[in-house]
Amino acid sequence: MKIQNLIGTRDFYPKDMRLQNYIFSAWRKAAEKFGYEEVDAPMLESADLWKSKGELSEQMYSFMDKGDREVAIRPEFTPSLARMVAQKQKELQKPLRWYGIIRCWRYERPQTGRLREFFQFNIDCLGAESMKADAEVIATTVEILKQLKITPKEAYVRISNKKVLMELLKDIGVEDIESVLKIIDKKDKLSDNDFENLLKAAYKMNDEMVFGIKDILNITSIADLEKLKLNDETRKAVQELKDLFLYLDTYEAKDYCELDLSIIRGLDYYTGTVFEVFDRSRKFRAIAGGGRYENLVADFGGEKCPGVGLGMGDVVLQKFLEEKGKLPDLKKDVDYYVAPISDKVYAQALEISQKLRAKGNVEIDLVGRSLKKQMDYANSIGAKKVVIVGEKDLESNQVTVKNMETGKEEKQPLASL
Amino acid sequence: MKIQNLIGTRDFYPKDMRLQNYIFSAWRKAAEKFGYEEVDAPMLESADLWKSKGELSEQMYSFMDKGDREVAIRPEFTPSLARMVAQKQKELQKPLRWYGIIRCWRYERPQTGRLREFFQFNIDCLGAESMKADAEVIATTVEILKQLKITPKEAYVRISNKKVLMELLKDIGVEDIESVLKIIDKKDKLSDNDFENLLKAAYKMNDEMVFGIKDILNITSIADLEKLKLNDETRKAVQELKDLFLYLDTYEAKDYCELDLSIIRGLDYYTGTVFEVFDRSRKFRAIAGGGRYENLVADFGGEKCPGVGLGMGDVVLQKFLEEKGKLPDLKKDVDYYVAPISDKVYAQALEISQKLRAKGNVEIDLVGRSLKKQMDYANSIGAKKVVIVGEKDLESNQVTVKNMETGKEEKQPLASL
């Protein structure tokens, strides 16, 4: 029987898994540096969890289980997280700093940077109203880029505040804000001309209003924002952005961060800060995205609890790292390869291998290869040292240890191993 | 909206995840010590993969996807592993030493030690015919027990060889071997009387044959096996057991290992060595099980390739560790908690926190708690040190560092952090 893995999915052979773990480990390390703790939820939940709120229910793998419940494989983590918080809200100490490496499925057309099975790194900080939390989440995002050796010239975080944009649009007389936001959300994929025409055609805007919108989107500094005539509401929202950028400066994250009012984030639930990580060349879709939300936990049966979150998928990230030559050439992590020169000394070699395991990872021959073939094999797996166990050496209670990096060989007494 | 997680599933809050990661890390460490490399496959595959061979297709979560393929969430890893090996058999260097921490789903009645979603640790060594491989897999299993501080008095490995048992049964005249194996497989769950009666009733055996079977199952040493009159085939199989136990002795694993010919393992594909890990009190079902197989890869379209494997679920293991008091009281891993005494010094405190991240995991206040409440909070999360940032201290370029283990407080110059 020949069966292939499903389209849009990946097998993780050891070399693939090493790269996957390299990314997972950068995620973990950054999150834990900032005091975030790992969480997870089941892969399968009641389909209602996503149907009621999520925008992804179309792409869900949903079905009836044997007990006649409509269940779905999670297309994202956030609703599960909100459910978990709502279920234990009283006993959980605020702020919650949670992260997860979340396996998800979405039924979409597989293409570059998009697969049906993927992992999404999520961090969420819940229970803090201050921009300190937004800055922390963005600083953690920047820390991930640093861990992966991505410079500010290669990727950056585009940051906005939905309230600022919405107030400014209102100020120039835009009435159907939601619809204009939807067009702005697509701006990156449109030519300048198409963007203008779309605005004009759909909402019968005059040129002045279109130029007004474009002027707003061209603002790239807080200073320029402050020069505008702002009402109280807008001034408060601009202050949020100002605080945020001040904190980011202290985090040494400023080089990675840019104000960009065209960032909308499709998801309805963001209410303030929104941000997306992009490669500078803009060859790939967003590497990550997130923002501040107010109603998520309440939407899932809990008490209202503000939060800030980030999601970063593994697929685009890995493609980007690959293109930039930033994926390391990872070898198997073997400290010692123990090479018995014949089966006669196998038991002693085994004993030696077991002793060496107190010091690290140890492999021993299982298939009776010749010494030459064992040396080739040890070399191919990147073993750091080879311990050659021979009859003569054993008679004088020693072995030959070859350092595979320097090529140096020396006799060592058994007792010293 | 109030939605609960599905029955038979778990939410992993931080404290649950810490315990889960404690177990995962013991699995990883043991596997990597023996040179095993991590692999994984998609959670969802064509349902045919399990229907053709597995014994678990009844318990599968299977359904038609949006592209009209019958797909299933994996109830186990082995068929995916065999598919992966078959797909790249030519380029993969033997022996393959693979491990995986595999998320699985089975539709079963949830009960103690059995959930619908669980993780199964798998190790497989492929391409080695010698008992050296069987010994290595069992030694890795024992290493896991050691990592988890389980003594030989608390749990042990029951080891058999299917060929030995089958030959011995043939020798005393048993004809329907398969059926007798099925009854022996249930022996642990039956009273002595019921076991005898089941054998007698189902196969019209005389007392002599029943006692013969019981005598075989009572054999607990290789020496006793060798005392029997053995044909060549049986002698070869007994020699396998003898080699295996000799190697296990060298691995310092002997205390954990016992010969037990009643071990069958339900799964058809085992052809030689079979083993199961049990708690000595026999309160729980098997903690782990595995054995040698010959035809697995060929069954999935590859060339014949012998292998030895182990599977260990997280649910029984965790229950067992809990009962034995072997689950550690794990705290959040925070090296420094930075406590600004007021918002005026927040920016400086943030700068200090970011500097300290070069040394470890650092948390800082986000919600404006009083110093007293911050100290309580830092204590509750198990922070190792608290760095108190106050205005006066800052004037003389210093902070107060409290060691939370000793309770000692001292001033430290900023430059020294």
Structural features, described:
The structure is a homodimer of 417-residue chains. Chain A contains 15 helices and 16 strands. Chain A has 417 residues and is an alpha+beta fold. In chain A, the strands form 3 sheets. The first copy, chain A, has an 8-stranded mixed sheet with strand order 1-5-6-11-10-9-7-8. In chain A, strand 9 and strand 10 (288-293) form a beta hairpin. In chain A, helix 4 packs parallel to helix 10 (232-250) and helix 6 runs antiparallel to helix 7. The longest helix of chain A has 20 residues, at 14-33. The model of chain A has no long low-confidence stretch (mean pLDDT 94). At the A-B interface, helix 1, strand 1, strand 2, strand 3 and helix 3 of A face helix 1, strand 1, strand 2, strand 3 and helix 3 of B.
What topology does this entry show?
Two copies of one chain form a homodimer.
Chain A: H1 14-33, E1 37-38, E2 44-46, H2 48-51, E3 61-64, E4 70-73, H3 78-87, E5 96-105, E6 117-126, H4 131-147, E7 155-161, H5 162-171, H6 177-186, H7 192-203, H8 207-217, H9 222-227, H10 232-250, E8 257-259, E9 270-279, E10 288-293, H11 296-299, E11 307-313, H12 314-323, E12 336-340, H13 346-356, E13 362-364, H14 371-380, E14 385-389, H15 391-395, E15 398-403, E16 409-413
Parallel strand pairs in A: 1-5, 7-8, 12-13, 12-14
Antiparallel strand pairs in A: 2-4, 3-4, 5-6, 6-11, 7-9, 9-10, 10-11, 14-15, 15-16
Record keyword descriptors for this entry:
homodimer; alpha+beta; BirA Bifunctional Protein, domain 2; Rossmann fold; 8-stranded mixed β-sheet; 15 helices; elongated
